[in-house]
Amino acid sequence: MLWLVLSCAIDSSQFERRSGDPELVAPTVSAPPAPRAEDEPLYQALYADEVGEEARPLGQRARMMAWMTTLGLTPTQLDDLRETHAALMALEEQHQADREAHGLREMEALGPVYAAIVVGLAEGRDVSDQAVPLADAQTELPSLHEQEVARTREALDVAAAWVAQLEPHQQRLVQDSRYFLRRRLAPMVNPGDYEALVGTRWMAGDFDTRSTALPSDDGMDLGGLWTAEAWRAHPDDLLGPLQQQAIALMALSEPGIAEAAEVMLGLRQPLDFGPRPDAPPEETNPPEP
């Protein structure tokens, strides 16, 4: 939903090319700073992500808990995070329910026309006479656009309310949640979210999306995202308030974030990946560490 309201949030002056600064031309891409200097190698290694899905739940939990530790979230803030995640999931469920209901209406209105076009093309007949019935059927369908924009704004407000109760130094670290959002922010994986955060449209193929196992490899540059931005503005300068709000929304709605908070609160065993903290042992299904 994010791209509906975020794509115009950055002023064009923010993309003026900066030259002569070697640090901007070749930026260092890294994980969020570790709370202690001795933790820095671990945080950098965690940033590499996983290729498959088997180890990903454990890796994501480690990254999420590292982010929460870096922010220094209090028990109250962790509880609020869980409630915020639940509220966002309720909005997402309603969003999906509305789209599924709309899909049924589409099938009822458009299905017969599409079927006539398909059959006509299969038989080699002229199907140009289906243009008016198709346009009429599309016009009669109610639009979900305004409803989806309103729900997206509501979700952004929910995320912003959680960020607002953080201390100022914590708020500055919220966008470091990119630490565990790497897959979502890869430009060829989720171009809608990517465009909303960067504020511009890139041509397909402009970015390398290679996976890599080592944080020092070039592929860790989020598909070239930060290098490209370095020619225009430093990433943290580029992300305006609405983009930062979008990052917070994605972080707070990311699968596993509430469970990671429950581990931090002592409400869930560290390796418990079951559906709820009080689930009996037979209902839990933790991956092998």
Summarize the helix and strand pattern as letters: HHHHHHHHHHHHHH
Individual helix count: 14
Output the structural class: mainly alpha
| β-strand number | 0
Tell me the major beta sheet. Answer: none
Q: Termini distance? A: 34 Å
Q: Which stretches are poorly predicted, pLDDT < 50 over at least 5 residues?
A: 2-29, 187-195, 199-223, 228-235, 280-284
Summed over residues and divided by their number, the pLDDT gives a mean of: 75
Written account of the structure:
- With 289 residues, the chain is an all-alpha fold.
- The protein has a domain at 57-95 and 145-272.
- The protein contains 14 helices and no strands.
- The radius of gyration is 22 Å and the shape is elongated.
- The two termini are 34 Å apart.
- 21% of the residues are buried.
- Residues 2-29, 187-195, 199-223, 228-235 and 280-284 have low confidence and may be disordered.
Characteristic terms for this protein:
single chain, 289 residues, mainly alpha, elongated
Which secondary structure elements does this structure contain, and how are they paired or packed?
Layout lengths: L2 H4 L15 H4 L14 H7 L9 H16 L3 H48 L8 H10 L4 H20 L3 H4 L10 H4 L5 H8 L26 H6 L4 H4 L2 H13 L3 H9 L24
Structure at a glance:
The chain is an all-alpha fold and 289 residues long. The chain is built from 14 helices and no strands. The two termini are 34 Å apart.
